[in-house]
Amino acid sequence: MALWSPLLVTPDGLDYLQGAFTLAHGGGFGDVVPYKAPGLTVLLAGLMWVTHAYFPLLHGLQALLGLVTVVMAWGLLRPIGRWRALAGAVAVGLHPVLLMYEGYLLRESLAAFLLTLIGWLLLRGRREQGAGWAGWKWTIATGAACGALALLRENGPVTVGVVAVLSGLLCPYPYPRRVWMGVARGCCVLSVAVAVLLPWGWHLHTTHGVIGVTVPKLQFNRVVNAWWAGLLDGTELNGLGRGKSDYAYVARALVLTHAGGPGGEATPADTVVWWMTNQPRELEDLCKELIDTASARRPAKLWACRADAIAGLMGVWSVKNPAARTDAFNARALMGESRWTTNYLFDVEGLLTLSRFKDREQPLRAVLADTRAPLRTLPDSGRAGLVRGWWRVFEVLRFVFGWGFLLGVAAAAIRREWVMAAIGAVVLLNLGGAAWVALTPIDRFAAPFIPLMVVVAAFGAGEVLAWRPRGRRAMGASDRLQPGVDRAAEGPPMIG
Question: pTM, whole model, 2 decimals?
Fold first, then answer.
């Protein structure tokens, strides 16, 4: 299905495209925007260096990694039974959101693959209890996958820390050896991830004087999301006003409080991007002041936004929040009904008609020439009909998987299935942190975690279906899956 539609480019995708084009043609990292993680840009540059038909190659690669994600989901559930593994794999393979993002020049599809890979590596590391290479290779691979994820998404470093701790806690040794071996494995994961991040981190430090994956932008993201959620009403500064858009609000605040900037007749977007690129710390300080002022004046609204965010990201409640923009990159834009014009979906030819992207014409023209012939596209009406129907399926599935995930986490904790509990912790801590900080239930935050949520939901559903009332034989300790032993053929054993 991903290959059945064209690879679509959003305005966000243009940053990756321009940076990759410059990098692939010997221009270095000059056009790689410092406020976005560079992983997708570097990958796209590598594909450009290999072949001129890089868009079809990227499209096919994302579809292939989607299939690998399905196989890994099956592998995570296989030790507890064939049918649960099959059901979970089918659910991951046919999930509407995952299928949609495979057709975009965005990071969500690749991030879903890496997160599922991390979960699968945690399982392998749990089952391998040898102290030699057989046990440590999975730990090293886990660290490498975490480092790649941190290069792909700005919140990846949070996942690195969570996985490092969980990798140590899952160390399959008896006490007291478990303590020092757990610390060693956790430090190994962290060290390998840092080694993967080090080259880009050094480049960012030498060019922008910051330590991290991107220049600071957390508070700016909070302001943008809080504007959509209605937390910011324009009274945070004298003469500010709410403005016509989130970027117009931030640009007006910059004009009121800071001298300088791009000057001339710069648009609000150009003004904000200039400050984000050249003076990120000043922009962060201003945004923090705005969000702190609004939070102090309207604490009830702040907590309501956080509740909406966690309920929407987990899929346990239908949140009618304009900040969610659940359809901005998906159904309604293809149906011509999207209200958020900055997030419209464009084909490459359509992007060339916009004056604001004229400076990107060379790489876009190359893409247009490379993609017109190889890709088969659906007619507009056919694609819109497909997305409309599939999105209605998703509106039902999000509740099934959301509540099923919470059920699976509870079942894993009760049954002491520590691998499933660890996977649940990765999802909960990341989505909970996103809800706490970002304040809005934007579906793109949750999309990469969908395969892991489906796996845990399938585990929980299987535990409910396998439950027996008192008086019948319960699964004993002898039935549990021991590290390094695969008893899948003997029935539905435990994972941890």
Answer: 0.84
